[in-house]
Amino acid sequence: MSEKFKEFPGTPLSSRDIKSGKVLTFKWRPNAKYAWTVGIAYGRFLEELKNGRIIGRKCRECSRVLVPPRMFCEQCFRPTDEWVFVKNTGRINTFSLSYLDADARRIKTPIPVAVIDLDGASPGIGILHKLGNVDPKRIHIGMRVRAVWKPAKQREGSITDIKYWEPI
Amino acid sequence: MTVAIVGVGYTDVRSTTPDVSFKESMFEAAVKAYEDAGVNPRKDIGSFITAAEDYYEGYSIFDEFVPDQLGAVLRPVCTVGGDGLLGLITGAMQIETGVFDVVAVEAHSKASDILTLENIMTFAFDPVYNRAFDAHPFFVAGLEMRRFMHETKTSREQCAEVVVKNRRNAIDNPAAVYPAKITVDDVLNSEVIAEPLTRSDVSQMADGTYVIVLASEKKAKKLSDKPIWMKGLGWCSDTPWLESREWGSTVYTHLAKERAYKMAGITNPRKQIDFAEVDDWFSYKELQHIAALGLCEKRKAGKLLQKGSFNRDGQTPVNVSGGRFGVGNLLEASALQSVLECVLQLRSEAGKRQIKDATTAVAQSWRGVPTGTGCVAVLSNEL
Amino acid sequence: MVKKRVAVIGAGITLFRRRLQETGKELSHYAVEMALDSAEMTRDDIESVVMGTAPDAFDGIHMKAENLLDGAGGARKPYTRVFVGGGTGVFAPIGGWWHVASGLFDTCLVVAEEKMSPCYPHPQTAFRTIWDPIITRPLEPNLVWIFALEMQRYMQIHNIPKEHIAAIAVKNKGNALDHPSAQLAAKITVQDVLDSEVMVWPVQRLDISPPSDGAAAMILASEDVARKYTDDPVWLDGVGWSLDSAYWTNRDLYFPEYVATAARMAYKMAKIHNPRKEISLAEPYDPFDYKEAHHTEGLLLADKGGAPKLTVEGQTFRDGDQPICPSGGLLGVGNPIAAAGLMKCCECFWQLRNEAGKRQVPKAETAVAQAWGDLMQIGTVTVFRR
Fold first, then answer.
1. Percentage of residues in chain B with pLDDT exceeding 90?
2. Do the beta carbons of residue C238 and residue C266 sit within 8 Å?
3. Does C269 sit within 8 Å of B237, measured CB to CB?
4. Strand-pair category, C107-115 with C49-52
5. Cβ-based contacts of C144 with chain A (< 8 Å)
6. For residue B47, what is the enclosing H or E element?
7. Which of B197, B270, C111, C185 has the maximum number of C-beta atoms within 10 A of its C-beta?
């Protein structure tokens, strides 16, 4: 390769080249809007969040309790069988502290996030959420946490009806 | 090529499906297809393919969300950015390598989830050259329709007959959303979208999911008493430049057809092909595609259609299912709707709309504006 | 078992940079021209084309492969876009492989392109839409979150110190000094990595590969046709891919089972029984330094939790027993997503042809390239032989 190729094509630019108009750009903001159907499984899940409860689905064949719920078991490839409430509490499976927002801009106070294995669901069945009311230095894998809910009137059937999870 | 379709599964096609998520629809279609084929996805299926595009789903990397409901977790799974027929062709190639015996292919439409479909179509246009017109994306269809009519001396009425025929055909298809008995005047008198294209020249959107199971020759003979063989495959993309297209004809269908027919040993399509399911996103597209498939002389598609040659009882029935006009426009999944119809007909399971003694069919697809991309498959119930 | 043996007979690559003036079409075209020239072929010799390119949201074009196809040499040819998220770059030659291995085509041009710079305010913004819209997007996650969560889990389960992981970034950025396309080649130290700004703990600035623009191309041919063009083909003897569940919070992230499943498939096809002994060099996917280690283990080239130590001990350097990412990887060469994966396959090709120049690994006989993507979910693996 190194002998055969003398030149590697490409003309590098800096962000200044674009801002100063040295190269021209065409701007376009896509208008892409959706109203995703939540379906049966997520529909009930969101409804129960509004009620301040977390619900999963159980597959009788593998005996797993799945959260978030789905109407099918991906391991056994059969319909799941029943609704099962799981607890408001759990254990941190893994965690992180984010110094970036969703557009990769830096933020001063990091957001603590975690995968939380839920009590009442099968081992290793967790959900992604934020942590709160906690000293970042104290967060560790295995830490016990509980959900802190928004007041009932403010809940709207969203994963954000849980404000965050705090240490027990 | 000795790959067969051994199982088909599909949901009802509906204009909107607010009750189920795309995952739940996929699960339903998959369960039915695997039952039809007599396979267990966790044990018997070697590879899974989904035909999908991110912006039709509202996800980036839609591939992420497909394995669970197909029984495909920790198996070879991939997405092709194409229509369902390209997915099927991909599956056939994977089987032909000798590595897989059974492959499942999925495509679906959840068009009712998309609030800004026209804007998303415009988002497919070349950003620098073609986006700034601020026109409805179907202006491209208007340009193409005008040039096609000019070159082939096809009339507006002849284009309208496509809509009349396909919606009439759909009356006998229980899966269809838009069956109707309408007249040419009904089509001509509907509001103009992009001269000469009217609202009624455009098929209407619907939701639906399809799963098709393919198998190698050896496996197909074990699994099915009525395997439908994929005899010839072709696919092709014309230039993306609107400015240098041959608007009058569909180059992609011509080139795809040549490959597919050669593979299948089709030298006289009018005699050898018993019926066809072709893309009819817009009325005139069906006429273009019929001609490109060699089912009639180049300029005669409109005239012959008017005479009834492509009716269910005509010389070469086209879109007996009802096509996009009658069944509903299922975006990338309409191609599998076409394949499904071929399979049902060739298995003699098409009920009231059954074509007698059909042995060989052609399914053809197109991806919609602004693309010049499509596929052709020759299917037969004889090996 | 495979109907037709598949050869690699040419490859090409552009510069990888944060921003390139060329459009995606133009970058694809340049990479294709290089690949064709290197094989002494023209576009007329190409029977089919496979495009690998990651989310449309980067380039800002719906169905972007349709728009790119003329640049990729696909006009009026059978042309297919394959897409498995970040795994796409190594998956594109797998797509090419089934075109040729099936006996349907004698040649297939494989192209991978990524133009991330058009996405504003940051390519990261495109990643906002990779999440489940119902249960994950409302939390406004950032892509790096999930890697940080995975890295944390991996380090804790195996008790791996951050220093050991940082050594991988040092190695790859150093290796990239010899790669003419490289965007972030540098001579740095472990301390530099540990002192770099925290992005999403434990991920720091120097643990991570950059967003980039770039393209790469590769030409595949059937055995008989390959012999017409070259006396020195490289064989694509094994391919594997595997996609795990979308419900990633229901999986233990410490081990990439999807990579192991894909690797087993590829090794079986290539008749590799003892990968650690039989593979001369590996190009596992390294968008983050811990990922190289994680994937080295997934490729069964190290014990679980044992990969970082291999680098600390120097075994993964070009002159070590088990060279890993001799190209410089994504950490050093850059990460135009799909193009970066194909860059790894190109590296295997050049290494096995003894054409890697300053990067040449001694006695390269068998090489493996791997990529990964979706929601920490897919493994794509290719095995090359000389």
1. 96
2. yes
3. no
4. parallel
5. 98, 100
6. strand B47-51
7. C111
Q: How are the residues of chain C apportioned to helix, strand and coil, as percentages rounded to the nearest 5?
A: 40, 20, 35
Please give the residue range of the domain that contains residue A127.
39-167
**Given an 8 Å threshold on Cβ–Cβ distance, is C19 in contact with A104?**
no
Residues of B in contact with C70 (CB under 8 A): 239-241
Q: B3-116+206-223 belongs to which CATH class? A: alpha beta
The stretch A67-94 carries a mean pLDDT of 97
Spatial distance between the Cα atoms of A157 and C13, rounded to a whole number of angstroms: 49
Cβ atoms of B104 and B48 within 8 Å: the answer is yes
Nearest Cα residue to A69 out of A51, A52, A92, A86: A86
Q: Is residue A32 a contact partner of residue A145, using CB atoms and an 8 Å limit?
A: no
Per-domain residue ranges of chain C: 6-120+210-385
Strand order of the β-sheet with A54-58 is A65-66, A54-58, A82-86
The residues, ordered by sequence, that sit 6+ positions from B205 with a Cβ below 8 Å of its Cβ are B15, B109, B111, B112, B117, B328, B329, B330, B331
Class of the CATH-defined domain B138-203+228-380 = alpha beta
Q: Is the pLDDT of residue A1 over 70?
A: no
Does this chain's domain B3-116+206-223 share its CATH topology with B138-203+228-380? yes
pLDDT per residue as tens digits for the range C105-122: 999 999 999 999 999 888
- How confident is residue B135, by pLDDT bands cut at 50, 70 and 90? confident
Backbone angles phi, psi at C314, to 5 degrees: 90, 5
d(CA C31, nearest CA chain A) in Å: 8
**Paired tokens of C330:** 């994504």
Query: Contact at 8 Å (CB) between C99 and B86?
Result: no
Measure CA C65 to chain center. 19
Query: How far apart are the C-alpha atoms of B134 and B242, rounded to whole Å?
Result: 16
Task: State pTM to two decimals.
Answer: 0.97
Smallest CA-to-CA distance from B73 within C199, C222, C248, A75 is with A75
Find out whether A145 and A89 touch, Cβ atoms under 8 Å: yes
Helix or strand or coil: residue C376? coil
Q: Judging by beta carbons within 10 Å of its beta carbon (0-12, 13-18, 19+), is residue C177 exposed, middle or buried?
A: middle
Q: Domain C6-120+210-385 carries which CATH code?
A: 3.40.47.10
Non-local CB neighbours of A89 within 8 Å, separated by 6+ positions:
A118, A119, A144, A145, A146, A147, A168
DSSP, res B98: T
pLDDT at C314 over 70: yes
pLDDT in tens, B58-72: 999 999 999 999 999
Report the number of distinct structural domains present in chain A: 1
- Maximum pairwise Cα distance, chain A: 70
Measured CA distances, C204 to A100, C150, C212 (Å): 11, 14, 18
Determine the residue type at C193.
V
Sketch the domain layout of chain B as residue ranges. Answer: 3-116+206-223, 138-203+228-380
Q: Which tokens hold the place of C274?
A: 């003892």
Q: Is A109 domain-assigned?
A: yes
The reply to whether A105 falls in a domain is yes
pLDDT at residue number A119? 97
Query: Would you call A11 and C144 a contact, using CB atoms and an 8 Å cutoff?
Result: no
Q: How many contacts does A have with B, using Cβ atoms within 8 A?
A: 79
Is pLDDT above 70 for C56?
yes
